[in-house]
Amino acid sequence: MAKIDYKKHQADFLNLRFDDPTLTVEKYCENVGLNYSSAKRYIKSNVTPKSRTRGGKGRKKDRTESEWSVIYCNYLANCVANPTLSIAQFAKSIDDIPATVRNGFKSLKNRPEFANLEQKREQAIAQFEASKPKKTPRKFKTPPLHKIAGMIHSLKPCC
Question: Residue 2 has what DSSP assignment?
Answer without folding.
Answer: P
